[in-house]
Amino acid sequence: MTTTLLAQPFTRAIVAPPGPSFAHGLTTRALGAPALDLALAQHARYCEALGRAGLEVTVLPADPEHPDATFVEDTAVVAAGLAVLCRPGAASRRGEVARMRDVLGPRFAGLASIEPPGTLDGGDVCQVGRHFFVGLSARTDAEGARQLARALERAGYTASTIDVRDWPDALHLKSAVAWLGGARLLVREAQALEPAFAPFERVIVPTREAYAANCLWLGRTVLVAADHPVTEARLRALGYAVEPLAMTEMEKMDGGLSCLSLRY
Ligand code: CIR
């Protein structure tokens, strides 16, 4: 086991359970309507897993006005010394950001915001150490990415963009790639040859397990969507403690493990 695997990259997480309007959220998937009771149970297991990994979890109330508000990751980008409120690409999600201003304001000095006309979803932002990859997607545009890059550079980070608009079944950059610590990424097979990832060790997610690429690295532990045995085995072989979590109801709404929390 290397120290990279044991390093705890975050100590806190902010989450919000799905609300009663969850099934009315946006989705590109044709997997049927989610069951709210099951979604709530899956969310509760997710929070427990974050706690077991040593994170202090702040649970916000459900937001009944915004069906997609459980996907808190899209509302802000947070890292050591930096917090930027997003301007989600989907108009129906913009109202989710106001309460995050109240939540993050006391926690982060100098809270910045993505301003119109830029749009940016947190799901398009993948931190890899001191560097951030920012996906240009149906949700995040070049202006939003530029504004974020300026904020990141002010905080001492670097940033570069990756155009993900042609990536199959990738709502966001992090639908297809996750940081596993050090110089290691978990990447969908279809994106294995993406030039931006060439300098990194790539753990490949086979195409039939594509949904598993949105995992959540928490140091020694990696949360992975359940029922993706090849991806799980590849991660275990590298020494990670893999925690499979049922995510069926979140997947129906195009959400994954990273989307459900803001970590800092
Ligand atoms: C949406 O379409 O915005 C939500 N139903 C799913 C957002 C998933 N967020 C993420 O991948 N970061």
Give a written overview of the molecule:
The protein is an alpha/beta fold. It has a single domain (12-263), classed as L-arginine/glycine Amidinotransferase, Chain A (5-stranded Propeller). The chain has six helices and 15 strands. The strands form five sheets. It has a three-stranded mixed sheet, covered by helices on one side. It has a three-stranded mixed sheet with strand order 3-4-5, with helices on both faces. Strand 13 (221-225), helix 5 (229-237) and strand 14 (241-245) form a beta-alpha-beta unit. The radius of gyration is 17 Å and the shape is globular. The two termini are 24 Å apart. 48% of the residues are buried. Mean pLDDT is 95; it is low at 1-6. Bound molecules: citrulline. Citrulline is lined by residues 25-27, 68, 71, 73-74, 90, 93, 122-123, 171-172, 253-256, 259.
Q: What is the arithmetic mean of pLDDT?
A: 95
Helix content: 10-25%
CATH C-level class: Alpha Beta
CATH architecture: 5-stranded Propeller
Radius of gyration: 17 Å
SSE arrangement, N to C:
HEHEEEHEEEHEEEEEEHEHE
Q: What is the assigned CATH homologous superfamily?
A: L-arginine/glycine Amidinotransferase, Chain A
Q: How many separate domains make up the residues?
A: 1
Helix/sheet category: alpha/beta
Question: Which sequence of strands runs across the widest sheet?
Answer: 2-1-15
User: Which molecules other than protein and nucleic acid are bound?
Assistant: citrulline
Task: Summarize the helices and strands and which ones pair or pack.
Layout: H1 3-6, E1 12-15, H2 36-52, E2 56-59, E3 76-79, E4 82-85, H3 97-104, E5 112-113, E6 125-128, E7 131-136, H4 142-154, E8 158-163, E9 177-179, E10 184-188, E11 201-205, E12 216-218, E13 221-225, H5 229-237, E14 241-245, H6 248-252, E15 262-263
Parallel strand pairs: 1-2, 4-5, 7-8, 10-11, 13-14
Antiparallel strand pairs: 1-15, 3-4, 6-7, 9-10, 12-13
The chain binds citrulline.
Citrulline binds next to loops.
